[in-house]
């Protein structure tokens, strides 16, 4: 009886180890499935939201598409799984999704304690403050005893507390459970300011009845580098995610766009040759097709195209590139050389 | 012959003033009644005028978001543009006839099943063997040339109906079993019943969904995932079963013990007594409470949004957040959702009243 039980335990353990070994190669799983499963947010316009036809649109969604294009050659081979703030990491840990691309801030404790690894930062965000122009305030330091609307949880209120302590000021926190109530309260004058990530504030301002009545204060009171995340200990898969993102940035730097990528394959520039699979065999080193870089750009375009299509000044959100410009234009985007 | 013609006329001429005076007494009998009638009448007219003005007179029927922004009335273009998304969520656009057919089939089958004459074992078998599999194949595809659609893309109204109605259909027998277990004389079975019911009722639905969505996958071996929708569905079934069990137990306690004893004295087996004597009486008594629970569950499935599934109310909400429409059509979206929920809840309520009349169990 006892030996039977032990044998059963051993068999179960062996099965689990076997399953773990099989699990560790996310690339094989994705290739066998023929689809990338990507976790995105429920509904954040500009980052991930459904259009009228139920197609997922947005910056985060296009990051998913670029990875799918690199691995499977087609940016449409993605299944989007909706995750929210509470379930996003678990969905990744349990293997329900292959990559999490959901406006997630890379932080020390998340990277070290959650069993996940972050890819490169795709969007440099930071917490800011939006006020009505009529308040006559030009800097967050002039806000004294202001009522500030925020959403609960996360780090928003902590950042505000830290900021106002550092300048020796006081404020009153007004917390709303839903984003819609939060905005309505701000528009109706319930609070003097509303605080959130600057990307979010841009959309709050964009949908106001008269956007020119509101100003975004210059202070950025926190760093929020948003990055895609993968499961820990799958180095190859992390490389693939990282380099799919770097490919977008490098393509912008080299002037390769969705429209001219076919012409660019004839370019004499050795780096472009390597990126688009004309020279060397970089794809093989990742376990991918040699045309992976070409597929990424053909599917979603370069970083600038992805940004402009989803967040840029021609969209309703009307965001400026801010720190999300190339390093040689004074921004923070800096893809390592492709060689 | 002349008499037969005179009589109805005479009856009419007598009946009409009586009815009218009754009406007058009810609404204008005293100065107080007259005042209440006038005030209520004026209020109803005012509300009707506001509603009609909003819905039709000031409404925008074509144009885009900008036209809606200018107008104070309802924004119909929002509904027409977003209707398919609100009804079917992320289901592939070209394939949306499938959830539509499934929805119609489901509602039709429900309508037929409501007729007392078709009740019977055959109906249960038809649901289990024909209707549910057909609905599943329509939604999931993968065979008969239908493209496969993963459950992560299901959403909107079909998801609401599936989670609530399928959940309740499976929870009902489970709940009845639990109620019987709780009333059992066998200590082990009673303990199991009480333990399950109290455990499940002791935590909110949201935490059970959370357990199913967040904790369960962490206990599974790596690489093994159970479909998220299935997990939510099972969680809802277990949760609903505990509440149904308590309602049914109330009905069981209302059946005099003499009924049970008489059945046993006649030599019937425990199950025969339960199914033929006790349960029919008990269930009739708890119809209003059960329907109340059903309506509540139909609306509660919206909680699945916390585990990343979008039911009907959630697709409406996310449609409202589209940057093109944000802040413009909030009222329209919620009024539409309210109208749909009201329609189905009212139908369930009406059916409950019909059932009570059918079984003649109203408490007079």
UniProtKB/TrEMBL annotation, chain A:
<keyword id="KW-0813">Transport</keyword>
<dbReference type="GO" id="GO:0006865">
    <property type="term" value="P:amino acid transport"/>
</dbReference>
<dbReference type="Pfam" id="PF00497">
    <property type="entry name" value="SBP_bac_3"/>
</dbReference>
<dbReference type="InterPro" id="IPR051455">
    <property type="entry name" value="Bact_solute-bind_prot3"/>
</dbReference>
<keyword id="KW-0732">Signal</keyword>
<comment type="similarity">
    <text>Belongs to the bacterial solute-binding protein 3 family.</text>
</comment>
<feature type="signal peptide">
    <location>
        <begin position="1"/>
        <end position="21"/>
    </location>
</feature>
<dbReference type="InterPro" id="IPR001638">
    <property type="entry name" value="Solute-binding_3/MltF_N"/>
</dbReference>
<protein>
    <submittedName>
        <fullName>General L-amino acid transport system substrate-binding protein</fullName>
    </submittedName>
</protein>
<feature type="domain" description="Solute-binding protein family 3/N-terminal">
    <location>
        <begin position="35"/>
        <end position="264"/>
    </location>
</feature>
TrEMBL record, chain B:
<comment type="similarity">
    <text>Belongs to the binding-protein-dependent transport system permease family. HisMQ subfamily.</text>
</comment>
<feature type="transmembrane region" description="Helical">
    <location>
        <begin position="161"/>
        <end position="181"/>
    </location>
</feature>
<dbReference type="GO" id="GO:0043190">
    <property type="term" value="C:ATP-binding cassette (ABC) transporter complex"/>
</dbReference>
<feature type="transmembrane region" description="Helical">
    <location>
        <begin position="286"/>
        <end position="313"/>
    </location>
</feature>
<dbReference type="GO" id="GO:0022857">
    <property type="term" value="F:transmembrane transporter activity"/>
</dbReference>
<protein>
    <submittedName>
        <fullName>General L-amino acid transport system permease protein</fullName>
    </submittedName>
</protein>
<dbReference type="InterPro" id="IPR000515">
    <property type="entry name" value="MetI-like"/>
</dbReference>
<dbReference type="InterPro" id="IPR043429">
    <property type="entry name" value="ArtM/GltK/GlnP/TcyL/YhdX-like"/>
</dbReference>
<feature type="transmembrane region" description="Helical">
    <location>
        <begin position="123"/>
        <end position="149"/>
    </location>
</feature>
<dbReference type="InterPro" id="IPR035906">
    <property type="entry name" value="MetI-like_sf"/>
</dbReference>
<feature type="domain" description="ABC transmembrane type-1">
    <location>
        <begin position="157"/>
        <end position="353"/>
    </location>
</feature>
<feature type="transmembrane region" description="Helical">
    <location>
        <begin position="333"/>
        <end position="354"/>
    </location>
</feature>
<dbReference type="InterPro" id="IPR010065">
    <property type="entry name" value="AA_ABC_transptr_permease_3TM"/>
</dbReference>
<keyword id="KW-0812">Transmembrane</keyword>
<feature type="transmembrane region" description="Helical">
    <location>
        <begin position="25"/>
        <end position="48"/>
    </location>
</feature>
<keyword id="KW-0813">Transport</keyword>
<keyword id="KW-0472">Membrane</keyword>
<keyword id="KW-1003">Cell membrane</keyword>
<dbReference type="GO" id="GO:0006865">
    <property type="term" value="P:amino acid transport"/>
</dbReference>
<dbReference type="Pfam" id="PF00528">
    <property type="entry name" value="BPD_transp_1"/>
</dbReference>
<feature type="transmembrane region" description="Helical">
    <location>
        <begin position="202"/>
        <end position="220"/>
    </location>
</feature>
<feature type="transmembrane region" description="Helical">
    <location>
        <begin position="97"/>
        <end position="116"/>
    </location>
</feature>
């Amino acid at each position: 009886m006892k030996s039977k039980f032990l044998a059963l335990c051993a068999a179960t353990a062996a099965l689990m180890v076997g399953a773990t070994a099989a699990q560790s190669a996310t690339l094989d799983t994705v290739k066998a499935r023929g689809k990338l499963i990507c976790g995105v947010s429920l509904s954040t316009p500009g980052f991930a939201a459904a259009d009228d036809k139920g197609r997922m649109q947005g910056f985060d969604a296009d990051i998913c598409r670029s990875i799918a294009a690199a691995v499977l050659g087609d940016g449409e081979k993605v299944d989007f799984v909706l995750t929210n703030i509470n379930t996003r990491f678990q969905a990744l840990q349990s293997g329900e999704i292959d990559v999490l691309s959901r406006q997630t801030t890379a932080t020390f404790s998340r990277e070290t304690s959650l069993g996940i690894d972050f890819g490169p930062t795709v969007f440099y965000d930071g917490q800011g403050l939006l006020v009505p122009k009529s308040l006559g305030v030009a800097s967050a330091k002039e806000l004294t005893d202001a009522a500030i609307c925020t959403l609960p949880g996360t780090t928003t209120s902590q950042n505000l507390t830290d900021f106002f302590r550092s300048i020796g000021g006081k404020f009153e926190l007004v917390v709303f459970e839903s984003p819609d109530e939060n905005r309505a309260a701000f528009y109706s004058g319930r609070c003097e300011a509303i605080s959130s990530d600057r990307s979010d504030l841009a959309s709050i301002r964009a949908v106001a009845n008269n956007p020119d009545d509101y100003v975004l204060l210059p202070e950025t009171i926190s760093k929020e580098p948003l990055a895609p995340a993968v499961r820990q200990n799958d180095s190859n898969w992390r490389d693939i995610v990282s380099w799919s993102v770097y490919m977008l940035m490098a393509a912008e730097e080299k002037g390769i766009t969705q429209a001219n990528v076919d012409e660019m394959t004839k370019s004499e520039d050795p780096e472009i040759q390597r990126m688009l699979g004309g020279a060397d065999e970089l794809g093989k080193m990742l376990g991918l097709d040699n045309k992976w870089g070409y597929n990424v750009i053909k599917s979603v375009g370069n970083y600038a195209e992805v940004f402009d299509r989803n967040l840029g000044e021609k969209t309703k959100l009307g965001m400026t590139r801010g720190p999300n410009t190339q390093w040689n234009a004074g921004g923070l985007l800096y893809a390592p050389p492709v060689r | 012959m002349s008499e037969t013609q005179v009589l109805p006329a005479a009856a009419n001429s007598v009946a009409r003033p009586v009815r009218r005076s009754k009406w007058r007494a009810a609404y204008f009998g005293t100065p107080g009644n007259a005042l209440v009638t006038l005030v209520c009448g004026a209020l109803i007219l005012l509300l009707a005028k506001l509603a009609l003005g909003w819905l039709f007179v000031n409404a925008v029927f074509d144009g885009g978001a900008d036209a809606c922004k200018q107008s104070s009335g309802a924004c119909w273009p929002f509904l027409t543009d977003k209707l398919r998304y609100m009804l079917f969520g992320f289901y592939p656009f070209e394939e949306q006839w499938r959830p539509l057919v499934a929805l119609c089939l489901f509602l039709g089958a429900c309508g037929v099943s409501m007729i007392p004459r078709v009740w019977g074992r055959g109906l249960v078998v038809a649901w289990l063997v024909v209707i549910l599999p057909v609905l599943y194949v329509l939604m999931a595809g993968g065979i008969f040339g239908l493209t496969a659609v993963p459950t992560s893309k299901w959403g909107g109204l079909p998801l609401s109906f599936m989670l609530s109605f399928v959940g309740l259909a499976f929870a009902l027998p489970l709940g009845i079993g639990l109620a019987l277990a709780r009333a059992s004389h066998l200590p082990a079975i009673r303990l199991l019943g009480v333990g399950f019911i109290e455990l499940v009722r002791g935590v909110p639905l949201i935490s059970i969904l959370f357990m199913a969505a967040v904790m369960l996958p962490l206990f599974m071996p790596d690489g093994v995932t159970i479909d998220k929708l299935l997990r939510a569905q099972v969680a809802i079934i277990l949760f609903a079963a505990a509440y149904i069990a308590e309602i049914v137990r109330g009905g069981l306690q209302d059946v005099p013990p003499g009924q049970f004893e008489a059945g046993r004295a006649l030599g019937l087996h425990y199950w025969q007594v339960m199914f033929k004597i006790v349960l029919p009486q008990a269930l009739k008594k708890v119809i209003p409470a059960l329907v109340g629970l059903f309506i509540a569950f139909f609306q509660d499935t919206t909680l699945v949004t916390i585990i990343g599934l979008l039911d009907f109310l959630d697709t409406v909400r996310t449609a409202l957040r589209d940057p093109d429409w944000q802040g413009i059509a909030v009222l329209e979206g919620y009024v539409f959702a309210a109208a749909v929920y009201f329609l189905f809840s009212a139908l369930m309520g009406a059916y409950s009243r019909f059932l009570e009349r059918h079984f003649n169990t109203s408490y007079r």
